[in-house]
UniProtKB/TrEMBL annotation:
Signal peptide start-end: none
One Pfam short name: Rhodanese
Name by which UniProt lists this protein: Rhodanese-like domain-containing protein
Coiled coil location: none
SUPFAM superfamilies: Rhodanese/Cell cycle control phosphatase (SSF52821)
Ranges for domain Rhodanese: 18-126
Organism: Cellulomonas alba
Length: 139
């Protein structure tokens, strides 16, 4: 069963601020959270979680991902929207698919992620959550 779909960063923020059951899950690594920043949990009334999809520094899939997702208070079948975010929108697709298969969601992927793909200048940050001017902070 496919995940519920892709959202632009603005659409994701709009869903999170209009539906008080929706949860944001940032699936980047601890290093990314610390060095690049995170979406501001206060902007979504604290309904945000940091759960690595790929663990740092091993680069291996997080075997506890679904357990940690459940520890946020989400339950399979509870129909709470879950919005997954990563750096550019690739790992969050995999996380949304896994969550959907486990009964969580509807699960969404944020297109462009937190800081988007590498631009012509060789750097990220031209697209994504931060570039859209959505609330974020340093960890």
């Amino acid at each position: 069963m496919p995940y519920a779909g892709d959202l632009t960063p603005q659409q994701a923020f709009d869903l999170l601020t209009s539906d008080d059951r929706a949860v944001l899950v940032d699936v980047r690594t601890d290093a990314e959270w610390r060095y690049v920043g995170i979406p501001d949990p206060a902007a979504v009334d604290g309904r945000a979680a940091l759960i690595e999809w790929i663990t740092y520094p091993s680069g291996r899939p997080n075997p506890q991902f679904l357990v940690q997702l459940a520890e946020t208070g989400l339950e399979p079948g509870d129909a709470r929207p879950v919005v997954f975010l990563c750096r550019s929108g690739a790992r969050s697709i995999a996380a949304a698919e896994a969550a959907t298969a486990a009964g969580f969601g509807p699960s969404y992927n944020v297109l462009e992620g937190f800081e988007g793909d590498v631009g012509a200048d060789g750097h990220r940050g031209h697209t994504g959550w931060k570039a859209a001017g959505l609330p974020w902070r340093n960890l």
